[in-house]
Predict the structure.
Amino acid sequence: MGNLYIFDHPLIQHKLTYIRDKQTGTKEFRELVDEVSLLMAYEITRDLPLQEVEVETPVTTCKSKVIAGKKLGLIPILRAGIGMVDGFLSLIPSAKVGHVGLYRDPETLQPVEYYLKLPSDIQDRVLIVIDPMLATGGSAEAAITALKKRGARQMKLMCLIAAPEGIEKVRAEHPDVDIYVAAIDQQLDEHGYIVPGLGDAGDRLFGTK
Ligand code: URA
């Protein structure tokens, strides 16, 4: 079973409160999501392997560490996932970004892939699948399945808020994928919204309704 990490850093929790607040307008919402994404990126990359190199300082040479081996790929799920990319990139600007677009078939209610554009070497990257809201888990599950089909071998799922139902689904279908969230909320309502949640993440990020 994959691990579940809840980021309880005070700055993340503080900012999340204002993200949830319905009085927070589009500009501030976007900025806050950006800031939380940067903080989550810091935490999510905590286990990146290091290697020792030699560096010449103005005083002498010494051994020091740099990030080794695997490179990162960010895979936002359209459209709300896009809102968490820039914050992550401000910390790790060299990460490549792929996109997955999914919609829910109104008859089968199953997610259908309508867009997929990935870095060519996803098999050699640690992929961070990004979706602010892990609700039913349908989109995240389908996105991870789509990435595995194209050769992805190592993935992490990063969300702002998760419902227990979504966590359960992803963990059941993809036990190899660790999940990173800022909060786990109570439940889903009858429309699939997370309660208490923050409303529609895409609409709040992009000012649509
Ligand atoms: N997607 C959202 O944007 N919000 C929810 O509460 C659930 C899914």
